[in-house]
Specification:
By secondary structure, the chain is of the alpha/beta class. Helices cover 42% and strands 24% of the residues. It has a 7-stranded mixed sheet with strand order 1-7-2-3-4-6-5. Helix 5 links the parallel strand 2 and strand 3. The protein starts with a helix and ends with a strand.
């Protein structure tokens, strides 16, 4: 479509107003194409398929670091991982954990007004445990039985993703302030746990 619009500009007889309209439509098409690519990448991140959970989370944070947000301060996001090496979690489990962590970070960015988000993911012999904790305004007390009734559909979806893997998800107040999300999924057949720790940090500018 972009190419055809470009060829249209060579049509004789178009006045300046029509040419400006063609340029405007061309820009919108290019923006739409970029947005579609971002959506596809979000649905099926190449890093998640090819390199695993930690690499995909780092790539997501890198993308966030190239953006700016409406926030009282700049936002520092720290990702710490332990026990991840060549071995992979089942792909469905990796995908669900990735989605939950991604959504938790997005919630903090949109609603918390935080200056820091701490993400931790640890794969031990018996389980994979992750936390996402911010120092923002907090979510308040949530009754796990009434998540849907209270309108927290996103949180309900996050809980369902973890529970369908045989795990549990807790959402509540952080250690000092803010909101803390904790997920735990039991794992089996883990005999060799690599002594690997990774730390990754990005800063998102505020506007």
């Amino acid at each position: 479509i972009t190419m055809e619009l470009g060829l249209l500009k060579f049509h004789q007889g178009f006045n300046d107003g029509v040419l400006e309209d063609i340029d405007s439509i061309t820009t919108k098409v290019k923006d739409t194409n970029l947005r579609l690519r971002q959506i596809v990448r979000g649905i099926h991140p190449a890093e998640l398929v090819n390199s695993g959970l930690v690499a995909a989370l780092k790539s997501h944070l890198e993308d966030l670091g190239n953006q700016s947000i409406v926030n009282p301060t700049v936002l520092n996001i720290n990702l710490r991982s332990e026990g991840f090496g060549d071995q992979r979690l089942p792909i469905n489990m990796e995908t669900d954990i990735y989605r939950v962590v991604q959504q938790a970070i997005s919630n903090s960015i949109q609603h918390a007004g935080a200056s820091t988000i701490q993400v931790s993911i640890i794969w031990s012999k018996i389980d994979c445990r992750f936390t996402v904790e911010d120092n923002g305004r907090g979510i308040g007390d949530i009754d796990p039985k009434d998540i849907v009734k209270s309108g927290h559909f996103g949180l309900a979806n996050m809980r369902d993703r973890i529970e369908r893997n045989g795990g549990s998800l807790e959402i509540g107040n952080g250690t000092n302030s803010g909101t803390k999300l904790t997920g735990v999924i039991s794992v089996t057949n883990r005999t060799d746990i690599p002594d690997l720790t990774s730390n990754y940090k990005v800063t998102i500018k505020n506007t």
